[in-house]
Automatic annotation (TrEMBL):
Stated name of the protein: Glycosyltransferase RgtA/B/C/D-like domain-containing protein
Keywords of this entry: Membrane, Transmembrane, Transmembrane helix
Keyword field contains Magnesium: no
Protein source organism: Roseburia difficilis
Keyword Thylakoid: no
Membrane-crossing residue ranges in chain numbering: 21-42, 54-73, 102-124, 166-186, 223-240, 252-284, 468-487, 494-514
Length: 547
């Protein structure tokens, strides 16, 4: 083991100066992330209010862990930097090769579609909460507003023009997801990804119980997952072809259209698209001009859709206040209100007293502002409070109770980054169908099938497989490690970071807006992280395939 670490050290010294310096920085950052973020903080959050001796022991243990973890990551970077994803053998003739790729499209499409249709049959016409019903009402009454992304509402409206039934919109969502899964496997087969990698990708596309639960809702998060799969196909084409794929005008056009779609289908989609394009301009010189043009046209396209197009359909624009961005500080305030009210300043106590009567506070779930947000007048109270005053009373509370404030931050954000979790993370993914004006309801005679499928889902969610499918922190950690391990490989470096950093920017940026453990915001991570990790280890710049 000592000889291997010595060899890893010599390997690192042999890198170019720029690579060596950057790799050491990355090793240090990832080491701190693993030891302090994924181990120390969860350990310490179990002891709030803090026990000084407990903290000292944990901090000392973490400091001792830093060196072996750093050395282990350095060894991993050395070991894997020379590894490349093997390519499968191509067919002898172009016709046979195309049939092989079409076979993988069929596998990718049919397995996913058949499985989705089982759930669609049992839970017809799909699931919906108040957000879905509000969007459906907007479509039926041709009265759109920007509280929900109008771009997404118009997509559902397009489906309703074919068959005006919520169940048909859900069917189209499931169908398109299946087609895109087939397209992803087709593209990976075209670029000679090994068979085992295609099978692994298909497993994560079809077997995650969270996927069919989310896709039975016409959520903007469901649409985001579809667009992200399509965009991942384009990333494979771009990186494997050394940027040549994007130089075709047709491809550049669809690339920009999908960027616009990702940015508009969720208001925070720009946390992914803008970092990706900026990084590509800086570090992917082969397509620097195309990505700079894409950034300009994406922003212009977004403006055109959000103004002339939205005005054309008569979309109203309710006053957008800061109430949707204060989930983390509100979680801190609510936690302190319940656990240590004496730490609240008089102003903070008065502010929280306006939110609701004492009986409402009895239903508050620690670390989950959502449990209180929708049953009180919290939004109105926040809107009437000056943002500067709100920040001041939050800062005063943090200063008075730093340990509990840190615990609240941990509780509301850990679903995004922690590799350990609780069943509460899945609560917003229960099959549900609200009372509605259109008499949509589950078919009574299929209750037995629904019960069987729900029992199967619960078994999956309570099994060790859940760590693979439902833990966003696991997906991000695997992506981070894969990026670190290929960074020193010739031709990778910051190009590899261009694949990973936008996903991290979206995840950690959205994390700061959370009001509770809402997994669906990050569902696409579980779908695309396997193809991205495989792409990181594959060879790049192979020229464009003619398949």
């Amino acid at each position: 083991m000592f000889s291997q670490n010595r060899a890893a050290g010599e390997w690192l010294k042999g890198q170019s100066r720029g690579t060596r310096v950057m790799l050491r920085i990355l090793l240090a950052v990832v080491t701190a992330y693993v030891v302090l973020g994924l181990w120390l903080i969860p350990q310490m959050m179990r002891a709030v209010p803090m026990d000084t001796k407990y903290w000292k022991v944990k901090i000392l243990a973490a400091l001792l862990m830093l060196i072996p973890v750093y050395l282990g990551l350095r060894w991993g970077a050395c070991r894997f930097s020379g590894r490349a994803l093997p390519e499968s053998q191509g067919a002898e003739t172009p016709g046979t090769e195309k049939k092989r790729c079409l076979l993988w499209f069929g596998i990718g499409f049919l397995l996913v579609f058949a499985w989705m249709m089982v759930y669609f049959y049992a839970y017809f016409p799909g699931s919906f909460d108040w957000d879905n019903l509000d969007q459906w009402w907007q479509i039926q009454n041709h009265q759109y507003d920007t509280w929900h992304p109008v771009f997404h509402t118009l997509i559902i409206a397009l489906f309703s023009k074919i068959v005006n039934h919520y169940g048909f919109a859900v069917f189209m969502q499931l169908f398109l997801y299946s087609v895109l899964c087939g397209y992803l496997l087709y593209t990976m087969a075209k670029w000679r990804f090994p068979v085992w990698s295609l099978v692994l990708t298909e497993i994560f596309l079809v077997a995650n119980p969270q996927t069919h639960r989310i896709l039975l809702f016409m959520w903007k998060d469901s649409a985001l997952t579809l667009f992200m799969i399509l965009f991942t196909v384009y990333l494979i084409q771009i990186f494997k072809s050394g940027g040549q794929w994007l130089k075709k005008k047709r491809n550049l056009t669809v690339f920009i259209l999908v960027l616009i779609s990702i940015s508009l289908v969720r208001h925070n989609g720009i946390l992914y698209t803008i970092p990706l394009l900026i990084l590509a301009v800086l570090f992917f010189k082969e397509i620097r001009k195309e990505c700079a043009l894409s950034l300009v046209l994406m922003l212009a396209g977004m403006w055109l859709i959000e103004h002339p197009v939205y005005d054309l359909v008569g979309a109203s624009r309710p006053e957008q206040t800061y109430v949707e961005t204060v989930g983390v500080p509100m979680t801190i305030l609510c936690n302190i209100h319940e656990m240590a009210p004496e730490s609240l300043s008089p102003e903070a106590a008065d502010f929280l007293a306006q939110i609701g009567p004492e009986k409402r506070w009895k239903i508050y779930e620690t670390g989950n502002y959502n449990s209180l947000k929708f049953v009180t007048n919290a939004n109105a109270v926040i809107s009437d409070t000056d943002p500067g005053e709100f920040l001041k009373l939050t800062a005063d509370t943090v200063r008075n109770a730093p340990g509990m404030s840190l615990q609240a931050l941990y509780q509301v954000t850990r679903m995004v980054w922690d590799v350990r979790g609780t069943k509460e993370w899945h609560t917003d993914l229960e099959y549900q169908i609200r009372e509605n004006d259109w008499n949509f309801g589950y078919v009574e005679s299929r209750e037995g099938l629904r019960e069987a499928l729900n029992d199967f889902d619960e078994w999956m969610l309570n099994s060790p497989l859940d760590y693979l499918f439902s833990y966003n922190g696991t997906h991000l950690l695997v992506l981070i490690l894969c990026t670190l391990f290929v960074f020193a490989k010739k031709g990778k470096g910051w190009k590899a970071m261009t694949l990973a950093l936008p996903v991290l920017a979206y995840s950690y940026g959205t994390m700061l807006l959370l009001c509770g453990p809402t997994y669906r915001f990050f569902h696409f991570d579980s779908v695309i992280f396997i193809p991205l990790c495989l792409l990181l280890f594959s060879s790049w710049g192979e020229g464009e395939k003619t398949v």
